[in-house]
């Protein structure tokens, strides 16, 4: 049970600080009537997500492994590092944590109008179509989960795992934010979409399916192509 609670807390923290930073940055800009380059806001949000992972990796990593992402969990399942029971428990905990995190953001900002949701088409900064958005999310999640499977496969990497994963997530957000807002995490997308509703909820299917596909493919590649065992 402790590992499920850890996953709940970790995912809630990711949503609060990652999505919350996105909302805060956009709210400050709107309220002050200021203009901020997309590149600058992208960096701020990317580091918020990356640093959230670093913080949680060193807080709950020894309890649950700090997946806080169903795409990571499905990668671990396919790679044979996780059983089905734990996979289901982790995903349920992650989704509930993301919903709780989104709910806390509503309290913080007094509105559910903007919760750092993901989107394509009119909800994308670049107007990315659904097909391209799907491909972007699959590729970015593939890279992220492949990195996680690789870096966690050697015990000598234990001390730096959290930092490496967090920096990689930052890198992934730098590229992905203009296209889709960057999901690579079905729970992180589902929580804000459920609480916010509207267009984000109608599009959330893509941000559930694409990361799961990317995570599963990464596990297959790691297990059958890259793993030297």
From TrEMBL:
Lineage, top ranks: Bacteria, Bacillati, Bacillota, Clostridia, Lachnospirales
Membrane-spanning ranges: 40-60, 87-110, 130-151, 158-179, 199-221
Protein name according to UniProt: MIP family channel protein
Signal peptide per UniProt: 1-24
Pfam families: MIP
Family matches, as CDD domains: MIP
PROSITE patterns: MIP, PROKAR_LIPOPROTEIN
Membrane protein topology class: Multi-pass membrane protein
Domain of life: Bacteria
PANTHER family: AQUAPORIN TRANSPORTER, MIP17260P
Statement: the UniProt record of this protein carries the keyword Transcription regulation: no
Subcellular location: Cell membrane
UniProt similarity note: Belongs to the MIP/aquaporin (TC 1.A.8) family.
Keywords: Cell membrane, Membrane, Signal, Transmembrane, Transmembrane helix, Transport
